[in-house]
Design brief:
Elements: H1 23-26, E1 27-28, E2 38-44, H2 47-51, H3 61-70, E3 80-87, H4 93-109, E4 113-118, H5 123-135, E5 142-147, H6 164-175, E6 179-186, H7 193-201, E7 205-208, H8 217-228, E8 233-239, H9 261-273, E9 277-283, H10 294-313
Helix pairs in contact: 3-10, 4-5, 5-6, 8-9, 9-10
């Protein structure tokens, strides 16, 4: 079975069949009436990083992520779709965010699990807007769970990669949409006091990177599960700078510590196991700074693992013992 969309290629194992297929052999363009599945949607943006004073390169992220996802094995029979990429033209970040939100809302309306491929973390406000558009007049309790070294709660005249969650909180408040924001992996050396003050004023639940060691993990997971028990919809977002620099060098704002995969993956598993994740994205992959594509490979692994775990939690029992 050959891929029906460009940008996807990889190894073909014989005999070709469900047990030997890889993502590049399974992915298709989403057609009207297609069975619900995982749908990737790229956001090729450097503009938010540029406005936030970071090092640019994240616009190349969606293509690099597709390349690394292509060769990963299928763990179940969930349909896979590629819904294309939204580009930022002439610095018009806000217009691109609206276009992305429209596409993402349509994917949600069709019953798909949208997976955003960033791009800078300005993708998050676009993703949130898509969710709000999909919800319409409905007012479920929504939780944004962010794995990130940064709060991204900056108060700036224009939106950037540093503002998306403040924008989402303010937008939700104006709509009367209940919204909780939780951040895991915050670095005390990468956020000013005003950002901690803003988080406290807004009631943001946050856990620092130095509070998320292996011994802390069971209690932190139990705490997270208790918080998510009271929400209806979870939007999961992963900023790759939450990882150690040695694991993820190709990011817009590398940090000095980060959370190891031994912590990140159990957190993601616990979030997926709630059965409430309706959309997710991965942000801040910056291929020009990536060494041997290691960051892209790690990001693809996290997408591969988490989308499968979300499917298992939703009742897809095929291959659920192979989530690692």
């Amino acid at each position: 079975m050959s891929a029906a969309v460009s940008g996807w290629s990889g190894r073909v194992d014989l005999p070709e069949g469900p047990a030997t297929r890889r993502w590049h052999q399974w992915v298709r363009e989403p057609a009207t009436g297609a069975a619900p599945g995982v749908a990737v949607l790229g956001f090729a943006s450097d503009e938010g990083v540029r406005r936030n004073g970071g090092r640019v390169g994240a616009a190349e992220g969606p293509a690099a992520l597709r390349a690394m996802l292509s060769n990963l094995p299928l763990l179940d029979d969930t349909p896979l779709y590629d819904a294309g990429t939204v580009d930022v033209a002439d610095g018009d970040l806000e217009g691109a965010q609206r276009r992305y939100a429209e596409r993402l809302a349509a994917l949600l309306d069709a019953g798909h699990l949208p997976v955003g491929l960033g791009g800078g973390h300005e993708i998050a406000f676009a993703t949130y807007q898509g969710l709000a558009r999909h919800l319409g007049e409905r007012r479920p309790r929504v939780a944004i769970v962010n794995l990130d070294a940064h709060f991204d709660l900056r108060k700036q005249e224009r939106g950037s990669s540093g503002t998306p969650f403040l924008q989402a909180i303010e937008h939700a408040a104006a709509l009367g949409l209940p919204l909780d924001y939780c951040v895991y992996g915050i670095s005390a050396s990468a956020n000013t006091r005003v950002l901690f003050d803003t988080a406290n004023e807004l009631g943001v639940h946050h856990v620092r990177d130095d509070q998320l060691g292996a011994l802390d993990l069971p209690a932190r997971i139990a705490e997270l599960q208790a918080k998510l028990a009271g929400v209806d919809v979870v939007y999961l977002t992963i900023c790759l700078d939450v990882l150690p620099h040695a694991v993820a060098p190709g990011v817009s704002a590398p940090g000095a510590r980060g959370l190891p995969l031994e912590v990140v993956e159990p957190l993601l598993d616990a979030i997926a196991a709630t059965g409430k994740v309706r959309l997710m994205d991965v942000a801040e992959l910056s291929p020009p700074f990536d060494r041997d594509h290691v960051t892209a490979r790690v990001a693809a692994r996290l997408i591969h693992r988490t989308t499968h775990a979300i499917g298992c939690a939703a009742g897809n029992r095929v291959g659920c013992e192979s989530a690692g």
